[in-house]
Protein backbone atom coordinates (compact mmCIF):
# COMPACT_ATOMS: atom_id res chain seq x y z
CA UNK A 1 0.00 0.00 0.00
CA UNK A 2 1.33 3.44 -0.94
CA UNK A 3 0.17 6.93 -0.03
CA UNK A 4 0.32 9.85 -2.43
CA UNK A 5 -0.11 13.52 -1.74
CA UNK A 6 -0.39 16.38 -4.19
CA UNK A 7 2.32 18.98 -3.67
CA UNK A 8 2.58 22.53 -4.92
CA UNK A 9 4.84 21.54 -7.82
CA UNK A 10 1.83 19.75 -9.39
CA UNK A 11 3.37 16.34 -8.85
CA UNK A 12 2.23 13.31 -6.91
CA UNK A 13 4.63 12.55 -4.09
CA UNK A 14 4.71 9.02 -2.67
CA UNK A 15 5.27 8.05 0.94
CA UNK A 16 4.77 4.80 2.84
CA UNK A 17 3.63 6.70 5.92
CA UNK A 18 0.08 7.76 6.67
CA UNK A 19 -0.96 11.31 5.90
CA UNK A 20 -0.52 14.30 8.13
CA UNK A 21 -3.39 16.73 8.57
CA UNK A 22 -1.71 19.37 6.43
CA UNK A 23 -1.55 17.20 3.31
CA UNK A 24 -4.18 17.80 0.66
CA UNK A 25 -5.60 15.78 -2.24
CA UNK A 26 -4.79 12.55 -0.50
CA UNK A 27 -4.58 9.35 -2.50
CA UNK A 28 -4.15 5.76 -1.31
CA UNK A 29 -3.00 3.34 -4.01
CA UNK A 30 -3.21 -0.42 -3.39
CA UNK A 31 -1.60 -3.08 -5.57
CA UNK A 32 -2.57 -6.66 -4.71
CA UNK A 33 -3.64 -5.64 -1.18
CA UNK A 34 -3.58 -8.05 1.73
CA UNK A 35 -6.65 -8.85 3.82
CA UNK A 36 -5.18 -6.80 6.65
CA UNK A 37 -4.79 -3.73 4.43
CA UNK A 38 -8.34 -4.10 3.13
CA UNK A 39 -9.72 -4.47 6.65
CA UNK A 40 -7.76 -1.44 7.88
CA UNK A 41 -8.90 0.85 5.04
CA UNK A 42 -12.47 -0.38 5.31
CA UNK A 43 -12.62 0.63 8.96
CA UNK A 44 -10.81 3.93 8.45
CA UNK A 45 -12.76 5.20 5.41
CA UNK A 46 -16.11 3.43 6.00
CA UNK A 47 -15.90 1.54 2.70
CA UNK A 48 -17.20 -2.06 2.57
CA UNK A 49 -14.48 -4.67 2.24
CA UNK A 50 -16.37 -6.19 -0.72
CA UNK A 51 -15.89 -2.92 -2.62
CA UNK A 52 -12.13 -2.86 -1.99
CA UNK A 53 -11.76 -6.47 -3.10
CA UNK A 54 -14.19 -6.28 -6.05
CA UNK A 55 -11.42 -5.90 -8.64
CA UNK A 56 -9.83 -9.14 -7.48
CA UNK A 57 -12.05 -10.69 -10.15
CA UNK A 58 -10.20 -10.16 -13.48
CA UNK A 59 -13.54 -10.26 -15.28
CA UNK A 60 -15.03 -7.38 -13.27
CA UNK A 61 -16.86 -5.08 -15.70
CA UNK A 62 -16.58 -1.30 -15.81
CA UNK A 63 -19.28 0.18 -13.60
CA UNK A 64 -20.08 2.86 -11.08
CA UNK A 65 -21.73 2.48 -7.69
CA UNK A 66 -22.32 4.28 -4.43
CA UNK A 67 -23.62 7.53 -5.89
CA UNK A 68 -26.32 7.56 -3.25
CA UNK A 69 -23.99 6.52 -0.44
CA UNK A 70 -22.93 9.12 2.09
CA UNK A 71 -19.46 7.62 2.55
CA UNK A 72 -18.06 6.75 -0.88
CA UNK A 73 -18.42 6.75 -4.67
CA UNK A 74 -17.09 3.78 -6.64
CA UNK A 75 -15.89 3.89 -10.24
CA UNK A 76 -14.39 0.80 -11.89
CA UNK A 77 -12.60 1.36 -15.20
CA UNK A 78 -10.84 -1.25 -17.29
CA UNK A 79 -7.33 -0.27 -18.33
CA UNK A 80 -5.21 -1.83 -21.11
CA UNK A 81 -1.95 -3.68 -20.59
CA UNK A 82 0.40 -5.62 -22.87
CA UNK A 83 0.83 -9.13 -21.46
CA UNK A 84 2.99 -10.50 -24.30
CA UNK A 85 4.35 -9.29 -27.62
CA UNK A 86 1.34 -8.47 -29.76
CA UNK A 87 -1.14 -9.64 -27.10
CA UNK A 88 -3.09 -7.18 -24.96
CA UNK A 89 -5.81 -7.47 -22.39
CA UNK A 90 -7.78 -5.21 -20.06
CA UNK A 91 -7.93 -5.29 -16.27
CA UNK A 92 -10.12 -3.54 -13.71
CA UNK A 93 -9.07 -0.54 -11.64
CA UNK A 94 -11.29 0.48 -8.74
CA UNK A 95 -11.37 4.20 -7.93
CA UNK A 96 -13.13 4.99 -4.66
CA UNK A 97 -13.86 8.57 -3.71
CA UNK A 98 -14.35 9.05 0.04
CA UNK A 99 -14.81 12.22 2.04
CA UNK A 100 -11.15 12.29 3.08
CA UNK A 101 -9.24 10.51 0.32
CA UNK A 102 -9.25 8.81 -3.02
CA UNK A 103 -8.52 5.08 -2.93
CA UNK A 104 -7.45 3.11 -5.99
CA UNK A 105 -7.12 -0.67 -6.06
CA UNK A 106 -5.77 -3.13 -8.61
CA UNK A 107 -4.72 -6.72 -8.16
CA UNK A 108 -1.85 -7.04 -10.64
CA UNK A 109 1.55 -5.39 -10.34
CA UNK A 110 1.73 -5.04 -14.13
CA UNK A 111 3.38 -1.62 -14.28
CA UNK A 112 0.42 -0.16 -16.17
CA UNK A 113 0.49 3.07 -14.12
CA UNK A 114 4.21 3.20 -13.37
CA UNK A 115 4.75 6.21 -15.66
CA UNK A 116 1.75 7.98 -14.16
CA UNK A 117 2.96 7.37 -10.61
CA UNK A 118 6.41 8.65 -11.57
CA UNK A 119 4.81 11.83 -12.93
CA UNK A 120 5.61 10.87 -16.52
CA UNK A 121 2.13 9.76 -17.53
CA UNK A 122 -0.71 11.68 -19.12
CA UNK A 123 -2.50 14.30 -17.04
CA UNK A 124 -5.37 16.58 -17.80
CA UNK A 125 -5.66 18.81 -14.76
CA UNK A 126 -2.99 21.32 -13.72
CA UNK A 127 -5.12 23.54 -11.52
CA UNK A 128 -3.85 23.36 -7.94
CA UNK A 129 -7.13 24.69 -6.60
CA UNK A 130 -8.99 21.73 -8.05
CA UNK A 131 -10.39 19.29 -5.43
CA UNK A 132 -8.98 15.83 -4.72
CA UNK A 133 -11.31 14.40 -7.36
CA UNK A 134 -8.71 15.64 -9.88
CA UNK A 135 -6.94 12.33 -9.26
CA UNK A 136 -9.95 10.45 -10.64
CA UNK A 137 -10.02 12.64 -13.75
CA UNK A 138 -6.27 12.32 -14.26
CA UNK A 139 -6.47 8.53 -13.98
CA UNK A 140 -9.40 8.34 -16.40
CA UNK A 141 -7.53 10.56 -18.86
CA UNK A 142 -4.41 8.41 -18.52
CA UNK A 143 -6.43 5.25 -19.23
CA UNK A 144 -7.96 6.78 -22.37
CA UNK A 145 -4.52 7.84 -23.58
CA UNK A 146 -3.17 4.36 -22.89
CA UNK A 147 -5.83 2.85 -25.15
CA UNK A 148 -4.84 5.29 -27.90
CA UNK A 149 -1.12 4.53 -27.59
CA UNK A 150 -1.55 0.75 -27.53
CA UNK A 151 -3.96 0.92 -30.47
CA UNK A 152 -1.29 2.85 -32.38
CA UNK A 153 1.12 0.00 -31.62
CA UNK A 154 -1.44 -2.46 -32.95
CA UNK A 155 -1.89 -0.37 -36.11
CA UNK A 156 1.89 -0.37 -36.63
CA UNK A 157 1.91 -4.16 -36.31
CA UNK A 158 -0.99 -4.39 -38.79
CA UNK A 159 1.03 -2.39 -41.33
CA UNK A 160 3.96 -4.79 -40.91
CA UNK A 161 1.66 -7.75 -41.50
CA UNK A 162 0.23 -6.07 -44.60
CA UNK A 163 3.72 -5.74 -46.08
CA UNK A 164 4.60 -9.37 -45.35
CA UNK A 165 1.24 -10.80 -46.30
CA UNK A 166 1.75 -10.99 -50.07
CA UNK A 167 4.74 -13.28 -49.70
CA UNK A 168 3.95 -15.09 -46.47
CA UNK A 169 1.66 -18.06 -45.96
CA UNK A 170 3.00 -19.12 -42.60
CA UNK A 171 0.71 -20.08 -39.73
CA UNK A 172 2.59 -17.52 -37.58
CA UNK A 173 0.84 -14.73 -39.51
CA UNK A 174 -2.54 -16.26 -38.75
CA UNK A 175 -1.61 -16.56 -35.07
CA UNK A 176 -0.64 -12.90 -34.92
CA UNK A 177 -3.87 -11.84 -36.61
CA UNK A 178 -5.87 -13.88 -34.11
CA UNK A 179 -3.98 -12.30 -31.19
CA UNK A 180 -4.55 -8.78 -32.53
CA UNK A 181 -8.22 -9.49 -33.17
CA UNK A 182 -8.69 -10.86 -29.64
CA UNK A 183 -6.94 -7.84 -28.13
CA UNK A 184 -9.06 -5.39 -30.12
CA UNK A 185 -12.27 -7.13 -29.10
CA UNK A 186 -11.27 -6.66 -25.47
CA UNK A 187 -10.36 -3.02 -26.12
CA UNK A 188 -13.66 -2.39 -27.89
CA UNK A 189 -15.78 -3.78 -25.06
CA UNK A 190 -13.74 -1.97 -22.40
CA UNK A 191 -13.75 1.46 -24.05
CA UNK A 192 -17.49 1.25 -24.68
CA UNK A 193 -18.28 0.34 -21.06
CA UNK A 194 -15.79 2.89 -19.72
CA UNK A 195 -17.73 5.71 -21.37
CA UNK A 196 -20.75 5.08 -19.15
CA UNK A 197 -18.53 5.23 -16.06
CA UNK A 198 -16.92 8.48 -17.22
CA UNK A 199 -20.38 9.97 -17.62
CA UNK A 200 -21.21 9.10 -14.01
CA UNK A 201 -17.83 10.39 -12.86
CA UNK A 202 -18.70 13.92 -13.91
CA UNK A 203 -21.82 13.90 -11.76
CA UNK A 204 -19.66 14.18 -8.66
CA UNK A 205 -20.56 17.37 -6.85
CA UNK A 206 -16.99 18.74 -6.57
CA UNK A 207 -16.52 18.37 -10.32
CA UNK A 208 -19.86 19.95 -11.10
CA UNK A 209 -18.97 22.97 -8.97
CA UNK A 210 -15.63 23.49 -10.69
CA UNK A 211 -15.52 26.40 -13.18
CA UNK A 212 -13.40 24.28 -15.53
CA UNK A 213 -15.86 21.39 -15.39
CA UNK A 214 -17.18 21.79 -18.95
CA UNK A 215 -13.71 21.99 -20.45
CA UNK A 216 -12.63 18.92 -18.49
CA UNK A 217 -15.70 16.99 -19.59
CA UNK A 218 -15.11 17.95 -23.22
CA UNK A 219 -11.39 17.04 -23.17
CA UNK A 220 -12.01 13.71 -21.51
CA UNK A 221 -14.89 12.93 -23.87
CA UNK A 222 -12.67 13.71 -26.86
CA UNK A 223 -9.97 11.30 -25.68
CA UNK A 224 -12.50 8.62 -24.80
CA UNK A 225 -14.22 8.93 -28.17
CA UNK A 226 -10.90 8.92 -30.01
CA UNK A 227 -9.85 5.76 -28.19
CA UNK A 228 -13.15 4.02 -29.01
CA UNK A 229 -13.08 5.07 -32.68
CA UNK A 230 -9.43 4.05 -33.13
CA UNK A 231 -10.14 0.65 -31.60
CA UNK A 232 -13.16 0.18 -33.85
CA UNK A 233 -11.20 1.14 -36.99
CA UNK A 234 -8.35 -1.19 -36.05
CA UNK A 235 -10.85 -4.00 -35.42
CA UNK A 236 -12.39 -3.55 -38.87
CA UNK A 237 -8.91 -3.43 -40.43
CA UNK A 238 -7.85 -6.68 -38.77
CA UNK A 239 -11.12 -8.33 -39.79
CA UNK A 240 -10.67 -7.31 -43.43
CA UNK A 241 -7.01 -8.25 -43.28
CA UNK A 242 -7.93 -11.71 -42.04
CA UNK A 243 -10.37 -12.14 -44.93
CA UNK A 244 -7.75 -10.91 -47.38
CA UNK A 245 -5.15 -13.24 -45.95
CA UNK A 246 -7.53 -16.19 -46.26
CA UNK A 247 -8.14 -15.25 -49.90
CA UNK A 248 -4.40 -14.96 -50.54
CA UNK A 249 -3.73 -18.33 -48.96
CA UNK A 250 -6.52 -19.89 -51.04
CA UNK A 251 -5.23 -18.24 -54.21
CA UNK A 252 -1.66 -19.36 -53.51
CA UNK A 253 -2.92 -22.89 -52.90
CA UNK A 254 -4.79 -22.84 -56.21
CA UNK A 255 -1.62 -21.70 -58.01
CA UNK A 256 0.38 -24.50 -56.39
CA UNK A 257 -2.26 -27.07 -57.34
CA UNK A 258 -2.36 -25.80 -60.94
CA UNK A 259 1.42 -26.07 -61.23
CA UNK A 260 1.53 -29.55 -59.72
CA UNK A 261 -1.31 -30.72 -61.97
CA UNK A 262 0.46 -29.34 -65.04
CA UNK A 263 3.71 -31.07 -64.06
CA UNK A 264 1.78 -34.30 -63.56
CA UNK A 265 0.33 -33.99 -67.09
CA UNK A 266 3.77 -33.43 -68.59
CA UNK A 267 5.20 -36.44 -66.74
CA UNK A 268 2.31 -38.56 -67.96
CA UNK A 269 3.32 -38.14 -71.63
CA UNK A 270 6.43 -40.38 -71.53
CA UNK A 271 4.52 -42.89 -69.42
CA UNK A 272 1.77 -43.20 -72.06
CA UNK A 273 4.17 -43.41 -75.02
CA UNK A 274 6.40 -45.88 -73.20
CA UNK A 275 3.36 -47.95 -72.35
CA UNK A 276 2.23 -48.21 -75.95
CA UNK A 277 5.64 -49.07 -77.39
CA UNK A 278 6.36 -51.46 -74.58
CA UNK A 279 3.72 -53.96 -75.74
CA UNK A 280 4.80 -57.27 -77.23
CA UNK A 281 3.13 -56.68 -80.60
CA UNK A 282 4.22 -55.28 -83.93
CA UNK A 283 4.38 -51.47 -83.71
CA UNK A 284 5.68 -48.67 -85.96
CA UNK A 285 9.48 -48.20 -85.70
CA UNK A 286 9.78 -51.43 -83.72
CA UNK A 287 12.17 -52.86 -86.30
CA UNK A 288 14.17 -49.68 -86.71
CA UNK A 289 17.72 -49.69 -85.25
CA UNK A 290 17.21 -46.20 -83.82
CA UNK A 291 13.64 -46.78 -82.56
CA UNK A 292 14.53 -45.76 -79.00
CA UNK A 293 15.89 -42.38 -80.09
CA UNK A 294 12.92 -41.78 -82.39
CA UNK A 295 10.52 -42.44 -79.50
CA UNK A 296 12.59 -40.29 -77.16
CA UNK A 297 12.48 -37.42 -79.65
CA UNK A 298 8.72 -37.87 -80.10
CA UNK A 299 8.24 -37.84 -76.34
CA UNK A 300 10.26 -34.65 -75.92
CA UNK A 301 8.38 -32.99 -78.79
CA UNK A 302 5.01 -33.81 -77.25
CA UNK A 303 6.21 -32.58 -73.84
CA UNK A 304 7.44 -29.28 -75.33
CA UNK A 305 4.15 -28.76 -77.18
CA UNK A 306 2.16 -29.54 -74.01
CA UNK A 307 4.39 -27.16 -72.02
CA UNK A 308 3.77 -24.21 -74.32
CA UNK A 309 0.05 -25.00 -74.42
CA UNK A 310 -0.20 -25.05 -70.61
CA UNK A 311 1.98 -21.92 -70.40
CA UNK A 312 -0.35 -20.10 -72.78
CA UNK A 313 -3.34 -21.13 -70.65
CA UNK A 314 -1.51 -19.77 -67.56
CA UNK A 315 -1.27 -23.18 -65.89
CA UNK A 316 2.49 -22.84 -65.49
Automatic annotation (TrEMBL):
Residues 144-171 form a coiled coil. The keyword Protease does not apply. Keywords: Coiled coil, Membrane, Transmembrane, Transmembrane helix. InterPro entries: CorA-like, CorA_cytoplasmic_dom, CorA_TM1_TM2, MgTranspt_CorA/ZnTranspt_ZntB. CDD domains: EcCorA_ZntB-like_u2. It is found in: Membrane. Belongs to the CorA metal ion transporter (MIT) (TC 1.A.35) family. This is Magnesium transporter CorA family protein.
Amino acid sequence: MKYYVNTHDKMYRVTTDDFSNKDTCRWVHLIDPTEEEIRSLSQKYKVPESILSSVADPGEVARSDGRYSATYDLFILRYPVEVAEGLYETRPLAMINTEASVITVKYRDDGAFSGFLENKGHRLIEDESFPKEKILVDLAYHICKSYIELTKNINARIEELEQDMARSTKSETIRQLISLSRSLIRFSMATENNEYVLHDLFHLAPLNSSPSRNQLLNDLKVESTQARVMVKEASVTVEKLSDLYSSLVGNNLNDVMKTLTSITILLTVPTIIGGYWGMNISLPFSDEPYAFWWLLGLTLAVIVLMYFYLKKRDYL
